[in-house]
Every structure is written in structure tokens, then in C-alpha cells.
Amino acid sequence: MEKNKIDDITNPFKTMVDLSKPKPFKIAFPILLDGDLVLSPEHLGPAYLMAVLRGAGADCQLFEIALSENLDDSIQQLVAWNPAVVGLSLTTINIKLAKKFALKINEYLPDSYFLVGGPLATHHGRKMFDLEGWEFIDGLIRGEAEVPILRFAEAYHEHQNYNLVPNLIYRDGLEIKETQLIAGISDLDLLPNPVRDQCEIHNAKLPYLRVSTSRGCTSHCTFCNAPHVKNRVGPPIKGWRGQSPSRVVDEVEELYYKYKINTFDFVDSTYEDPGGKAKAKARIRDIAEEILNRNLHVFYNVCMQAYNWHEKDRDLLKTLWQSGLEKVLIGVESGSQQGLARWDKRSTVADNVRTINLLSEQNIYVAFGFISFHPWSNFEEIRENYNFLKNYMGHNLRRFTTRLELYPGAEVVEQLREASLLLDDYDNSLNPFAYSYTDKRIEKLAYSLNALYGEGYAEDCTIDKEPSAFKMDTFDIILHNYHSRLLRYYHNNSTACEILGTFKHNIENIKQRLADFNYELLMGFTILAEKDEISSSVVAKAAVDVESKYQDAIKSMQTFQLKTSRALYKANCNIREIQGIREESIA
């Protein structure tokens, strides 16, 4: 058996050491509650690692760390638990505060082994040991960590050498050593279900739970560092691997009944991978039909790629909707063909428009990934982006102002380096905006637009008080789900449909007015930028008006929602149907 083929055996998690004896191996997994504007804090990466380690007898505990609070107070429970190892997942978005946290932990627990992993550690590799302020790192695991962390725990527990622990970079005295890289698990059905400690920390009150049905991606977008066909770390492995449909629905069903949570976020890079081919679409149809066959009243969100979806897929999309699909994130990225080519996107502008319409017609919410500004931006592309956004998500102001973020492992990092547009301190700072623009007027515009969200955001993208424009992002989805779920239950009730139709019409009118406002505002700033007359102070003058517009819009939407609920109640429609699992489904 070749060493890098870890799943040539039936059980890649076969334990070599009992981690419960003579006393349990103790490892803490801190989850940093900062920098990720999502509704649920659940982190599946550590949850999978904990499942593997607990299966071998280890004592694992997860700690949510609120970095917005006093850090000393926030970490006291972790410190009191006194773990042998602290395992921290690093992402670009949490790197600054992760460093602050890690320094504080090292101060309190100098004898604990500090182990890092995650996407940033995977791609930055041994460079992490050279970063100023990160000298306390003892070890780093690259790539998928389920098997490597098990072997690490066994070696640590028995005071063995780490040279047989795969995917590990570690300090050995004054030396930094690396071990052999191995591929991840090919058969994902062999993975244990991730633990749900965070759900239990929150007393099963999370708005949704995350589920991973696959790993990898067959695309190769140049801005992305998620594992795909061009940036994989380690020996060759399939570009995409998926769990079997029955395994996916088994996990959903177990969570549905155990925690009485009916909403799930499928975190796959592309739900219909590999490549949206017939076999791939048959897999997701099987998942949908299995959900329906088991009478699970669930809702779920996925990511899709626009070029995979066509008119002939209407029936499949209807089946997905019937099984509970209610939101899709599409990596649109640009309203310009020039921009899409820059990111090596397979989808065209026409693909994006077609798929947005197909999903919207099925009453599925469409969210966007979008890059309005990047180092090669020109004014023609900016205007094409604004025109596209006005037509499809113009009420979302943030889509108009998003800038390219850099992630180690993404092809664009090296493209910028080659073009002399990457700032000299990037490799040490890992600042996701450490680049310059070919047109300095656009650079000023991109940075100045941050002032729309307050002084703190203008300075360093920190938020003291969440702007109403940000609140609209999530409130818009909440309103869609309110309407969509009621429509699912009452689509045969003509009175309810009329009430819900009026509600949707009123909400869409408000969103269109916001879209018109945003478009005119941003086009005005763009004209000033072309004349080289833009600045943060100029933009900041509009911030008060923006906040007022969004506050008023949210209040109006809330009023329409309240009136709709009252009208439905008078029509003998029970709106509690959409608030959770129906009683007959859990009897």
C-alpha cells in the first residue's frame, strides 16, 4: 500500500493508540466569533476533527471566544480547562484577531501545544512559522486534517516522534520540519458525522445547521483558495468527492429530529458538482427525492454555478424546491464579460442572467458573490457591474462596493505579484487588500466607498454599530423565507395567495426604490472618481442619507409583514406553520 493512499483500507480512522488512557488526551478547539457576518456560528471543520478524536477516546472541548468582549474574560473557561493542545483554524478573515487571541492563550498556557490548520495555514505552510508575532506556533496541519490530527494525537499522547504524522509542519528545537503529504479521504461516507457541540452550547436555538455533502470543486476561479482542480495540496485526488444521497439525508434526518431544527446550509462549493453533468444532477435529485420520501419538512441553502443550469432543468429545480431548497448562492462575481474572463469563470453574463431567472421563477432566493473592484478595474467594467446589479440585486448596497479579497493559495495572488501590484508586506501581514490598482482613481473610489458604512469601516473595515444596509442583507432573506414558506403551505388557498402576492409586490417596490437610489448614488461617485475628485470625506456626507433610507425601508417592510400576518390570521391561516417543525412530523 502506498503511504499517500490513506483510504486503501476499509477504515482510515483505525486507532493505533487509546487516547483515553492512562488519562484522556485533552485538546481544545476555540471558535472565534468575529469577522464572519453570518447568522450561525457553527464551524464544521473542528466539528469533524472532534468526531474523529472522540472516536479514539480523546477528551475534546469546543470554546466559543467572543473577541469583541474583554479577551481575558472570554478565554477564562478555556484556560481553566487546561488542555494539552489548542487547535485553531485560521482563515484570512480572522487572522488579525486570531493572532491577538493566540498570544493571550500562550501567555496563560505556555506549556500547551499550539496547533494550527485551516485554509490559511494549508496554503501558507511553513511561511507561518516565519511570520512576526506567530513564533508561538508549535505545529501546523495542511489540507484535510481528520487522519493527520488523529496520528498527531497518538504521537503526542505516547511522546513519540512526529515524523510519521502526515501533513505536519512542526518545530523540533530550532528546526522546522515537514512530513509527507497525503491525500484526503476519497470515500466521504467513511467520515463520522461532525459533532454538534455548538448547537448544544446554544440550546439548539441556532437558525440553521451546516451540512457538508461533498468536498472539492471542479472549477478553478483565480480568486478562490477553496480546494479545486488547480490548487490542491498534496498527492493527486479526485477534484470532487461526494457523499451518497442516503448518507446526506441520514444526517439531515438525525439533526432534524434530535434538535428540532428544520433549516440547513449545505456548504459544498458547488452543489451540482462535478460539472453539473447528468450523474451529478441525478445525485442531487436523489437527495431531494429522499427528503420527500421521508416526509422531512426541511429547508436548505446551497451554492451553484450558473453555467450548469438550463431551461431543460426546470423540472429538477421544481423537485429541489419541493424538497425544501429556498436559497442559492451563485458566484456571479461580475456583470461584465471582461470581468468574468479575468477570474477564469466558466459562466458568461448570459448564463448568470438565465440561471437567476430560472431560480427566481421557482421562488428560490438568489444571493450573489460579487467583486465590484479589483486591481485591474476600469470605468467601463464598473458601469457594467452597476447596470447588472441594478437589474438583479440593486437593493443590496454592499454588492456595489465589494473589493477583491486575497487568500493564500489563490492564483490571483501570484498574478498580482508578477504584475508588481502585490504590496511588499502581503506575505507577512496577510492583509486581504494588500494590493494596488492600475488606475489610482479607481483605487481612491474603492477605498472611499467604505465611508458609506461609518467611520470605523472607512478606516479599517471594523464595525462599531452594524449599518442598516448590512442589516438589510439578512432581513431580505428572512422576508423571502417568510413569504416562501407560507406560500408552500397555502398555495392552494386563493385568499392566502392573494394576501401573499400583495406582500411580495409591496416588498419588491421598496427594493426597487433602493436599487434606483443605490445606482444613482454610485454612478455619481464614479463620475467624481473619473475627474479625480472622489474622497472618503465626500462619500461620508452621503452616509447619513444612506442610513436613513435603509432604516425607513426596513421599517416599511416590517410594517407590511405585520399587516400580512394579521390578514392571514383573519383568513384562518396559521403562520406558525413556518416557524419550525410541524407537530405531526415529529409525533
* CATH-scheme architecture of the largest domain: Alpha-Beta Barrel
- Structural class by helix and strand composition: alpha/beta
What strand order characterises the main sheet?
A: 2-1-3-4-5-6-7
How far is the N terminus from the C terminus? 50 Å
The main pleated sheet reads as: 7 strands, mixed
Q: Return the CATH class of the largest domain.
A: Alpha Beta
Beta content comes to 5-15%
User: What are the segments in which pLDDT stays under 50 over at least 5 consecutive residues?
Assistant: 1-8, 580-587
Find the CATH superfamily of the largest domain.
Answer: Aldolase class I
Outline type: globular
Secondary structure tally, helices: 22
Radius of gyration over C-alpha positions, nearest whole angstrom: 25 Å
Annotated CATH topology of the largest domain: TIM Barrel
Kindly report the average pLDDT value: 92
How many structural domains? 4
Helix content range: 40-55%
Question: Topology of this structure?
Answer:
Elements: E1 26-32, H1 44-55, E2 59-65, H2 71-74, H3 76-81, E3 85-89, H4 95-108, E4 113-117, H5 119-124, E5 139-141, H6 146-157, E6 168-172, E7 175-178, H7 197-201, E8 209-211, E9 214-216, E10 240-242, H8 245-259, E11 263-266, H9 278-293, E12 299-304, H10 314-323, E13 325-333, H11 337-342, H12 349-361, E14 365-370, H13 379-392, H14 397-401, H15 411-418, H16 426-429, H17 440-448, H18 455-460, H19 468-490, H20 494-530, H21 536-570, H22 583-586
